[in-house]
Amino acid sequence: MAKNIITSFHTLPVELMYRILDHLTPFDIIVSIQDVCIRFNAIIHTYHPYLTFNTLELSFYRTPRVGKSRIYGSIHHNKTITTLNILNRDIDDEEIRHLVEALQTNHTITILYLHYTGIGTDGARHLADMLKRNHIIIKLNLSYNNIGNEGIRYLADALKINHTITALNLERNHITDEGARHLADALKTNHTLTSLNLNFNQITDEGACCLAETLDVNHTITDLNWQFTSTQNIGHIRLLIALQINQGATTLSLRSRHINNETLYQLANLLMNNEITTILDLQWNEIGSEGARHLANLLTINRTITALDLGYNKISDEGVCHLADVLKTNHTITTLNLRQNNIGDEGVRHLVDTLKTNRVRQNLCLYIRFIRFTLIIDYYLIGS
């Protein structure tokens, strides 16, 4: 009588184990096979599909807690995953604690997404403690959570110590001016972070000014995204200028920023001694003749700006006269766009007279469009 042969996974040939693994997903291998025994680990670490599996995406809406714990445990010593993306609205602070414990010993995950996870203050505190010791993660996405100002304070403290993270996404986290101050304080000493996303938080001009002051001394941030819910005013403009300097860009675009005459007065003061901006784009704002006067005052001192775009504003003949007068002595401006303003014949005459005396008139291109008796006239006046 033939003997029954009891076969164990421990004695199966490697080739047969590969065939079994072919029927499993990399996720199944990580959760079910990895760390079961030394032999299994040796086999899966020579199995090509497992070795090329570097992104783990998890959505835990209905996953039992024991399943989550097993997944977190599998991250501890995994050597293939470089990107971990967790999307889950009901992950709690305790689970975040288990996750960060796993990340303390993981040495391959460089990109961590934790958006839509409901992370609050306590979760942010656990993450901050991990970031103080983790020197592997370079990109952290915490968008669409409930971190708030207190949570930001923990993360800001971690940024003072962590010198690995280069990109941080904090979009929609109920951050106000207080949180902006915490971040601004951290960025005075952190010179590793290059990208910061603060879109759609409750940061006003006060918080924007704090961040702008920090960028005056921090020249590492080159990518700063913000769409604040408050009215964009001088603080936001200061941020744009500081970011432009950090980027080494020569164009300052302030299109459609609701800039009025009062804001333009502050902007002009900021640009008086600016030696970076050569192109100033102010199209589609609310600039009137008083604002044009502020710009004229700016151009009496600033000798860096070569192109000024004031299209689609509310500048009348009075404002054009201010600009025309300054162009008699300013020989740096070579391009001026006044398209779609309230300019009449008198304003055009002043500009034409200026072109006759401006020493760089051969390079001065003036674009005007105005309507008279339903007739659209395009002026392209080039000094000859």
Largest sheet: 7 strands, parallel
Unreliable segments of 5+ consecutive residues: 370-384
Q: Which overall shape is indicated by the principal axes computed on the Cα atoms? A: elongated
Order of helices and strands: HHHHEHEHEHEHEHEHEHEHEHEHEHEE
Beta-strand content bin: 5-15%
Estimate percent helicity.
40-55%
Structural class: alpha/beta
Radius of gyration: 30 Å
Give me the count of strands: 13
Number of alpha- plus pi-helical segments: 15
Mean pLDDT: 86
Span between termini: 112 Å
Strand order of the largest sheet: 1-2-3-4-5-6-7
Account of the protein in words:
- It is elongated and about 110 Å long.
- It is built from 15 helices and 13 strands.
- Mean pLDDT is 86; it is low at 370-384.
- Helices cover 41% and strands 13% of the residues.
- It is α/β, with parallel strands linked by helices and 384 residues long.
- The longest helix is centred in the middle third of the chain and has 14 residues, at 234-247.
- The strands form 2 sheets. Strands 1-2-3-4-5-6-7 form a 7-stranded parallel beta sheet, with no helix packed on it.
- It has helices spanning 14-21, 26-33, 38-44, 48-51, 65-75, 93-105, 121-131, 148-159, 177-187, 205-215, 234-247, 261-271, 289-301, 317-327, 345-357, and strands spanning 55-58, 83-86, 111-113, 139-141, 167-169, 195-197, 223-225, 251-253, 279-281, 307-309, 335-337, 365-372, 375-382.
